[in-house]
Structure formats: C-alpha cells, structure tokens
Amino acid sequence: MNSNNVVTVGDGAIKFDLQYRDLLSDQGVCIHVSGNENGKEIELLRFDCFDHEPHYHYGPEKNNERLMLDKTTEGDPLEWTLRQFRTNLPAMVARAGYPELSPAAEEANLSNVIDEVSLEARKMSKDQRRTVMHDRGDVIVEAGSVKFGIEYRHLANDEGIAIHVLGDVGDEELELLTFDCFKNSPHYHYGPRAKNQRIYLDNTAAPDPLKWALDLLKGGKLGPMLEKAGYLDHAARLNPTVLLACMVEVEKVSTEMEKAEA
Known about the structure:
alpha+beta; 2 domains; 7-stranded antiparallel beta sheet; 6-stranded antiparallel beta sheet; 13 strands; 34% helix
C-alpha cells in the first residue's frame, strides 16, 4: 500500500512502513516496524537511515530507547538496517519490549516481505533524494581547485547574495557548497547536488550573513567544509595563498553587488 508517501509492506503480525524524510539538515529512508498486539497495531522499532545522524529506536511507544549508528564502523545505514531484518529482528523486537511477537519476526516467516522491503527502500533512497541545482553565478572567481560563483538572488519572499563554491568532478562542473546570504532566512548547503544538507543561520547571532560567510571562507574553514560535503580531493588541493588572494576579489564583488541592490 502507498499512502501519503508511505509504502507499507506486509499484512501479517509484522509490518514495515517506509517513508522518505527530508529534514533540511538531514534526509533518508525511515522504516517503521509494527506488530499486532491484542488487535492493536504498535510501533515496535524505527530505523532513521539518515545521511548524517542515522539512528534507530527500540520500542518508540514504550521506553523509546534511541541509539546512534556510526557510519564509520557500520557503513551505509540503510544496508545495515536491512541486514538486521534478516539476522537480528526477533532479538530486536524482544529488546523493544515485545518478546511475544519475536516468533512472528523470524526471517523464515518474513523472507519474501524482507525482500520487498529491501527493494522498496533502495528505490526510495535513490528516487526521492532531495537535491537542488542553483545557477552558476554571474561573476566567476577562479581559485585553483575550486571556483566561486557570485550572484544576487531574488526569491518570492527573500533575497541576498549567493556564493557558490564550484569544482570539476570528472568532466562535469558541480556545485560543492553554497552560501545563501539572504535577508530573512540565511542558510548554506553542503553538497547541494548530492546529499544537500541545508543549515540555517541564526541572524540574531550573525546579523550580517554575507560578512559571516566571507569571514568563514577567509578563516580557513573552506577545506573542512569541502571534506564534510564529501569532496576530499578538492579540499586537499586547496592552495591557501591562492585562496586568500582570490577571496579579496570575492569579497569585493559580493559587497559591491549587495550595495547595488540596497
């Protein structure tokens, strides 16, 4: 069944509800494992297979024990979750506080269901990923392994300078980072065309988002941000001397562009 972007697999004592969630700062497939207890449907387990902070819950309707998943040790959180369904589901259901439902969670009883869950989850992870594609920018400043594209963006309910950090990946130019220094809702993107983690600024703590972004870029944070976005090669090839020289031009162009729109 597919309702309100939720795909339900299984109609016996154990069911799986799959949904893709975009939290702006994180995204991924969420899988709710439900069981039937005395005629009442209860959520037994929940797996939030997010890009950045994957985690899972034992007994969301009881103690709601929440555990983080370390991608460094466990790898892809969705694949880790699908493995648990085949090898550890009865034990996990029991730990969640429902030992009477453990027999129904045996892989032998759910083999075809888990196959379908795996197929649907992988498809959902691929097809429903949220990415964005901005314009390249009106002025391009070359800075070695990266380029800065600068433009003034007018949206329906916001406006401001946008600084796009661009880089070549193979034969294609990609947007690696973006700083949207908007008046109302300033924010920045890690990997807009890949994982697209969007983080909003507190414009009380940072009342001038353009200055905040420029200070960040001039202060040596570009490399770590590129690494977090997944572009380790671009980060490794940054030349600090070239970057600082180019930032003079980036600051000049962006501040003049902002003043012209004031």
